[in-house]
């Protein structure tokens, strides 16, 4: 059986305003699907809805994970079934170290009780992959972190929690080119190790130069307006959203 995350005719509203207006999307394990679009198009909303945010209302359609309808499932249940969301704006949590946060999340998600020593060995290996200094393990979660450091901490969570499908919401925003390369290398390694499916949400082609997508979809005003291969992302970079879509309609 092919493991898939499937979105069927999904309509989503926020306070009676429709934001997502009927989209169909499929991500298979081992694939990278890029969702590109301008600000305000509904990309981040989609990521939050897939992860079960109660802020939004699904008015029509389904979210199916490995043949199971999870449209109404709680966030923690989606996580246990193999979904992960990397936030565009990771929250700062004062008083909670990165190590304690990740160990608690790991033990809860996996229903285990890994010791502090054993978990630290695992954490140190993953941090090394992302070229994160050991001192980050003792710092409060995201407190005082730069944009790139916050995004590395998100991908560190990805490496530790080992989901089947990851929704990466603008992982490239707020990162310099060196951090982006390290983050992309880490994502590629995790994807390979886990045969993970990825929905990569982004504005730009920049990150797609390092993480090659199998499919690219242009998302505007709550709808997928155009789909194609990686070449579509390159074309979008040169023409921009408005011009590309004008050409498509003519």
Structure description:
- This protein has 250 residues and is of the alpha/beta class.
- The chain has a single domain, classed as Rossmann fold (3-Layer(aba) Sandwich).
- It is 37% helix and 29% strand.
- It is built from eight helices and twelve strands.
- Strands 6-9-10-3-11-12 form a six-stranded mixed beta sheet, with helices on both faces.
- The mean pLDDT is 92.
Radius of gyration: 18 Å
The backbone outline, from C-alpha atoms, is: globular
The CATH architecture designation is: 3-Layer(aba) Sandwich
Count up the domains. Answer: 1
CATH top level assignment: Alpha Beta
Instruction: Give the CA-CA distance, first to last residue.
Output: 40 Å
Largest sheet: 6 strands, mixed
Relative helix content:
25-40%
CATH level-3 fold name: Rossmann fold
- Could you report the average pLDDT, rounded to the nearest whole number? 92
Strand order of the largest sheet: 6-9-10-3-11-12
Stretches with pLDDT under 50, minimum 5 residues: none
**Number of helical segments?**
8
DSSP strand content: 25-35%
The H-level CATH homologous superfamily, spelled out, is P-loop containing nucleotide triphosphate hydrolases
**Derived structural class:** alpha/beta
Q: Give, in order, the helices and strands.
A: EEEHEEHEEHHEHEHEEEHH
The number of E-state strands comes to 12
């Amino acid at each position: 059986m092919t493991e898939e995350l499937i979105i069927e005719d999904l309509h989503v509203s926020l306070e009676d305003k429709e934001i997502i207006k009927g989209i169909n999307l499929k991500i298979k394990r081992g694939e990278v699907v890029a969702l590109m679009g301008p600000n305000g198009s509904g990309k981040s909303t989609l990521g939050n809805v897939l992860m079960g945010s109660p802020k939004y209302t699904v008015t029509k359609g389904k979210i199916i994970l490995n043949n199971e309808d999870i449209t109404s499932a709680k966030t923690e249940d989606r996580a246990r079934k193999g979904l992960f969301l990397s936030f565009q704006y990771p929250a700062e949590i004062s008083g909670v170290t990165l190590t304690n946060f990740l160990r608690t999340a790991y033990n809860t998600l996996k229903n285990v009780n890994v010791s502090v020593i054993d978990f630290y060995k695992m954490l140190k290996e993953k941090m090394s992959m992302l070229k994160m200094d050991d001192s980050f393990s003792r710092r409060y979660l995201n407190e005082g972190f730069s944009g790139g450091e916050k995004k590395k901490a998100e991908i560190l969570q990805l490496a530790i929690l080992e989901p089947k499908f990851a929704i990466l919401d603008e992982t490239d925003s707020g990162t310099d080119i060196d951090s982006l390369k390290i983050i992309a290398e880490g994502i590629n390694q995790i994807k390979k190790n886990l045969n993970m499916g990825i929905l990569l949400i982004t504005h730009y082609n920049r990150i797609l130069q390092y993480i090659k997508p199998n499919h690219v979809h242009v998302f505007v005003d709550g709808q997928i307006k155009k789909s194609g291969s990686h070449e579509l992302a390159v074309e979008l970079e040169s023409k921009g959203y408005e011009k590309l879509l004008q050409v498509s309609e003519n």
